[in-house]
């Protein structure tokens, strides 16, 4: 019996019956993680669901790659806007990240 593994909802793609995004599975797959490793990272998923999600991605690669690109662009815009609105917070975060003293220290 054929089963649908991926659904579109709330503007994104998700594994049917879960809150796990297709993005999460695809990025893990593209990093070279095995399906078993992806299941370990996302215990809400079965091995069958991971294979189904990867098959969906491979069958729709062009449109899903475009969707992922759009998501990265949107995230970068939101990050840049947050940096403009909260420059002191971001300089502290960057200082902590790179081990440099923050400007206010």
TL;DR of this structure?
This protein has 105 residues and is mainly α. 63% of the residues lie in helices and 8% in strands.
Question: What can you see in these coordinates?
Answer:
There is one protein chain. By secondary structure, this protein is mainly alpha-helical. Helix content is 63%, strand content 8%. The chain has five helices and two strands. It has helices spanning 22-30, 35-41, 47-59, 61-85, 87-98; strands at residues 6-9, 12-15. 17% of the residues are buried. The mean pLDDT is 88.
The CATH homologous superfamily of the largest domain? Winged helix-like DNA-binding domain superfamily/Winged helix DNA-binding domain
**DSSP helical segment count:** 5
The percentage of residues in β strands lies in 5-15%
Which percent range fits the helix content? Answer: 55-70%
Query: Which stretches are poorly predicted, pLDDT < 50 over at least 5 residues?
Result: none
- In terms of structural class, how would the helical and strand content be classed? mainly alpha
- The order of strands across the largest sheet is 1-2
Output mean pLDDT.
88
């Amino acid at each position: 019996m054929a089963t649908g593994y991926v659904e579109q909802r709330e503007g994104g793609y998700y594994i049917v019956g879960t809150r796990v995004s297709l993005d999460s599975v695809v990025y893990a797959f593209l990093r070279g993680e095995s399906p078993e490793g992806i299941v370990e990272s996302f215990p809400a998923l079965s091995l069958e669901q991971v294979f189904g999600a990867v098959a969906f991605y491979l069958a729709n690669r062009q449109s899903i790659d475009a969707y992922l690109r759009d998501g990265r662009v949107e995230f970068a815009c939101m990050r840049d806007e947050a940096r403009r609105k909260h420059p002191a917070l971001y300089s502290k975060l960057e200082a902590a990240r790179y081990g440099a003293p923050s400007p206010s220290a």
